[in-house]
Design goal:
Blueprint (H helix, E strand, L loop, with lengths): L9 H4 L7 E10 L4 H10 L4 E6 L9 E6 L4 H8 L4 E12 L5 E3 L19 H5 L2 H6 L8 E6 L19 E6 L23 H10 L13 E6 L8 E2 H13 L4 E4 L1 E4 L6 H11 L4 E4 L12 E2 L7 E7 L2 E13 L2 E10 L8 E5 L2 E2 L2 E2 L17 E5 L5 H10 L4 E5 L16 E5 L1 H12 L4 E4 L6 E7 L25 E6 L1 E4 L7 E4 L2 H21 L6 H10 L5 E3 L4 E5 L2 H4 L6 H6 L2 E3 L4 E2 L9 E8 L5 E14 L15 E2 L4 E5 L2 E4 L4 E9 L10 E11 L3 E10 L17 E3 L17 E4 L5 E10 L8 E3 L2 E3 L1 E2 L5 E4 L10 E4 L3 E3 L6 E3 L3 E10 L11 E5 L3 E3 L1
Parallel strand pairs: 6-8, 6-10, 7-8, 10-12, 12-14, 14-25, 17-20, 20-21, 21-22, 31-39
Antiparallel strand pairs: 1-3, 1-4, 2-3, 4-9, 4-11, 5-27, 11-13, 15-16, 15-23, 15-24, 16-22, 17-23, 18-19, 26-27, 28-29, 30-32, 32-37, 33-34, 33-36, 33-38, 35-37, 38-39, 40-41, 41-47, 42-45, 42-46, 42-50, 43-44, 48-49, 50-51, 50-52
The protein binds 2-acetamido-2-deoxy-beta-D-glucopyranose (NAG) (3 copies).
One 2-acetamido-2-deoxy-beta-D-glucopyranose binds next to loops.
């Protein structure tokens, strides 16, 4: 979900807003099913359209079509909008496959996992972390459940994924909706075969359903559907394709649809998000990755995880970090050809043996930061071992080269091993784990000579190293909520950081990737196990039951900044309910009727909320209710209106929660209602948009335990600043130069640049004539204007990311629109200024004072 988009100068020559859309491409939702009739009507009315995708799968969920508008003018769009059968016309928006954060790929699958993925099958760390191993032990495996995976396709030729595609196989249904050449912008060319050429989808599929002798998925016997929505390489995907894929998967009878795809949004109004909501309402649950934009801080929810009814999934780090190493051998005395693993870096050690020199200073391998010890002698033709740390890899390489050693094996000073790059001429480097280094130090202590042998074609091996720094806590990259409408995302989190899974055979067969992309299929697999059990019991399950079950059985985690645990629990805004507990999810004998208590901001504050507890067990139970607090997180940096990048500032100031009653006796099969009254935390700086949260803990006789997450925003969001005025924006500038005043743009195109400190449901840019005041005949709240820039007002804008290149731009092309939806007209020569407005959060579209306003310098248009 990497965003590198606002920079494109889409807006320069066309009036379209420079954002993540396909210029000229639209989705239209129509009444009835006659999409061909719609296209024909366009053509006979002189609107040239080229068909992209038909978006109805004989269901009543969504009927429409996507098309390219050859003349993408406000006139043509206005014409289409005026037709009675048109429900909504919206641009095709682009989304990305959630880009993996870290990536190690094996070179050869044949010798895989001789040290396994971290232990025997039944204590594979991610499965232990989420409680899946206990369900496997009970015989649950997902058999009979169909999960549709919307992704880059699946390499079903992988032996761990069944070997074949089609009915009766593990990957039994699905299709390629786009063809290999699709890049998001061009027209999709569907074909039958959903084979993966990119990798992401195969990794996702393996997390759900791989079966290998040393590695199995969460629900190894489910049937998968592969809906390929990316080309090769995978670039991005239009929401028309995503809508089509979701509709197709629903029509194909999937029990669950999962997508590790998204993009910054935070609004539920995108057509894809709306379709997800309708599919969920019709009974098919959807799990969607919460996003990998944790670096952006709070209020950065991703679409369509933010869709109402979707299950948004965050990422927790694996307790063990599997590393993919290349195999080599060492010999010393009686030890003959013992295997070890290393990560290759710059250069290659060839297929060759070396004498290994391990300079030990004060019992430790030298870091060589002050050069290598004098007594190592000439190292020409030998391999020298140097400890990582204190100084740069470059200076270590230089120290080795100074003694004639062109082959350097670094020993990591933290668990695992990483790929190292150096530029020292002729020097090749690799890295081994601290364990391998320690083994060599021991041999040196015994005065044994060591030799190492490398093979350029050596196999990959997987080693699993503990991750004491951040294992078992939220991944730093996992996106934070809440949404712009104060709904919490993610709902639930699952192992997604440092996950080993299947990868296309052409790329080596296995890979370690990180992302909410990896956490989402984990939760999909857990749902598969739940549905299998419910089916066996003859029970029909609603999506709401799944959401409630997942969140209320989640386990809250302490906050971790990437290197160390805090003493307090991570904010609900980051972790949602916490890590999934698959065992409790499936075995809980108590249920409630709410997934999350969202108290909203101070203006829309719900002073009390209630929920119902139901005892599904066969004995009377006594429930005791208490509150557990999570940290309160500030959205903005101190003294700023802009969000603080990860980690946000956090305070241990908690809401006061009154629970009535806080002790209940409930008979089997009966329910009772509980009221929660909340007083917001004290002593907070409301201007920094504090987001508080915690859990209502429901414990019964030590048997069952549920926790309902709650959260709220301790400020009035309609007072929070939406326009970023801190970094020199908004800015009206010359097309050619950032510094030239707008006035020098006579005859060229002034460009307006802006950045949003928070999401804004409506952004308007209106034009005021300075030289001819009488021409200002269009009132816009307090301003008399001549009209709006074409393409404005623009709706459902996400917060602008904080990177230096991330900015919104639009050019003034001398045209305006008098009234929304009408054709544009030319303005006469004269002096003008632009009035930029952004609607505040929770603001009302038609109320002027709910907007922030900024006015440009006058500029001359000739
Ligand atoms: C940090 O917290 C997580 C989650 O509770 C736990 O799994 C992990 O072991 C802790 N790490 C340390 C170093 O205490
Ligand atoms: C919070 O209040 C706003 C304004 O009424 C509303 O649009 C939004 O849906 C509310 N959010 C939640 C989570 O209830
Ligand atoms: C631009 O032109 C307007 C109108 O001629 C003038 O009032 C304004 O001072 C000029 N601004 C700059 C930056 O030169």
């Amino acid at each position: 979900m990497h965003l590198k988009t606002f920079l494109t100068f889409v807006g320069l020559l066309s009036p379209a807003l420079a954002q993540r859309i396909v210029p000229g491409a639209y989705i239209v939702e129509i009444k009835g099913t006659n999409t061909n009739g719609f296209l024909n009507k366009a053509r006979t009315n002189g609107v040239k359209v080229r068909h992209r995708m038909t978006l109805n799968q004989e269901t009543s969920i969504f009927n429409g079509v996507s098309f390219d508008l050859e003349d993408d003018t406000p006139e043509n769009r206005a014409k289409i909008n005026s037709w009675g059968e048109v429900v909504e016309l919206s641009p095709v928006r682009l989304y990305d496959a959630a880009a993996p954060i870290a990536q190690h790929v094996t070179r050869d699958v044949t010798k895989l996992m001789n040290k396994r993925a971290g232990g025997p099958l039944d204590n594979y760390p991610p499965h232990v972390q989420g409680g899946v191993n206990r369900l496997h032990a009970e015989g649950l495996d997902g058999k009979g459940i169909k999960i549709a995976v919307i992704d880059t396709g699946i390499d079903y030729t992988h032996p761990s994924l069944g070997g074949k595609f089609g009915p009766g196989n593990k990957v039994a249904f699905g299709l390629d909706l786009v063809g290999d050449r699709y890049n998001g912008q061009n027209t999709p060319v569907p074909k039958d075969d959903p084979i993966d050429c990119a990798g992401h989808g195969t990794h996702v599929a393996g997390i759900i359903a791989a079966v290998d002798k040393d590695f199995i998925g969460v629900a190894p016997e489910v049937t998968l559907g592969a809906y390929k929505v990316f080309g090769c390489p995978s670039v991005s995907v239009g929401n028309d394709v995503l809508i089509s894929a979701f509709l197709q998967a629903q029509a194909d009878g999937a029990d669950l649809i999962t997508a590790s795809i998204g993009g910054p949004s935070g609004w539920t109004e995108d057509p894809w998000a709306k379709v997800v909501t309708r599919i969920v309402d019709a009974g098919t649950p959807c799990s969607i990755a919460a996003g990998n934009e944790g670096a952006e801080g709070l209020f950065y929810a991703s679409g369509a995880a933010d869709a109402i009814g979707a299950i948004g999934v965050g990422s927790v780090n694996n307790l063990n970090s599997p590393v993919v190493l290349t195999a080599a051998k060492f010999s010393s005395g009686d030890i003959k050809g013992k295997e070890f693993g290393y990560t290759p870096g710059t250069g290659s050690f060839g297929t060759k043996s070396y004498e290994l020199v391990v300079p030990v200073v004060d019992g430790q391998i030298t870091d060589a930061c002050a050069g290598l010890p004098a007594d190592v002698g000439d190292l020409k033709g030998k391999m020298v071992v140097i400890r990582r740390g204190t100084c740069t890899f470059e200076s270590k390489a230089a120290a080795a080269a100074a003694k004639g050693a062109l082959n350097v094996m670094l020993v990591n000073n933290v668990p695992g091993a990483v790929d190292v790059t150096v530029t020292a001429p002729g020097v090749s480097v690799g890295m081994v784990t601290p364990e391998t280094g320690a083994e060599w130090v021991k041999l040196v202590g015994e005065k044994a000579a060591i030799s190492v042998a490398f093979d350029e074609k050596a196999a990959g091996i997987i080693d699993a190293v503990p991750n004491p720094l951040s294992g078992g806590t939220m991944s730093v990259f996992s996106s934070w909520g809440p949404t712009n409408e104060m709904y919490q995302r993610p709902h639930i989190s699952a192992p997604g950081g440092n996950i080993l899974s299947t990868y296309p055979l052409i790329f080596g067969g296995y890979a370690v990737l990180s992302g909410t992309s990896m956490a989402t299929p984990y939760v999909a697999g857990v749902i598969g196990l739940y549905l299998q059990k419910a089916k066996a019991e003859g029970r029909k399950v609603t999506p709401a039951e799944l959401r409630v079950g997942l969140t209320t059985t989640g386990r809250p985690l302490v906050f971790n900044d990437g290197a160390k645990n805090s003493t307090f629990l991570a904010p609900v805004a980051q972790q949602g309910a916490g890590i999934v507990d698959a065992y409790k999810f499936i075995h809980s004998k108590t249920s409630v009727d709410t997934e999350l208590l969202e108290f909203n901001d101070t203006q829309h504050f719900r002073e009390s909320m209630s929920f119902k507890i139901t005892n599904n067990g066969d004995k009377q139970a006594t429930y005791k209710l208490t509150e557990i607090s999570g940290a309160t997180a500030y959205t903005t940096a101190e003294g700023s209106t802009l969000a603080k990048r990860f980690p946000p500032d956090m305070v241990e100031s908690y809401a006061n929660v009154k629970i009535e009653p806080d002790v209940l006796n409930i008979k089997p099969g009966q329910s009772k209602r509980v009221v929660v009254r909340l007083t917001r935390p004290d002593g907070l700086d409301a201007s920094r948009i504090p987001v508080y949260g915690g859990w209502i803990n429901i414990a019964s006789n030590g048997v069952d335990r549920l926790r309902i997450p709650y959260m709220g925003v301790a400020t009035a969001m309609n007072k929070a600043t939406v326009i970023n005025t801190e970094q020199g924006y908004p800015l009206l500038r010359n097309f050619k130069s950032v510094t030239a005043p707008a006035n020098s743009t006579i005859g060229s195109r002034p460009i307006l640049e802006w950045s949003l400190a928070l999401g804004s449901a409506v952004v308007r840019i209106d034009v005021v004539s300075v030289s001819n005041e009488e021409a200002n005949d269009v009132p816009v709240f307090t301003d008399n204007t001549i009209g709006s820039l074409p393409g404005f007002p623009n709706y459902w804008n996400p917060r602008t990311p904080l990177g230096p290149d991330d900015i919104n731009r639009v050019a003034f092309t001398g045209r305006i629109v008098k009234k929304e939806g009408e054709p544009s007209v030319k303005v006469p020569a004269g002096t003008y200024k632009l009035v930029f407005r952004a609607l505040k959060m929770t603001g009302r579209k038609h109320t002027g004072r709910d907007y922030e306003r900024w006015v440009s310098e006058p500029f001359v248009w000739a």
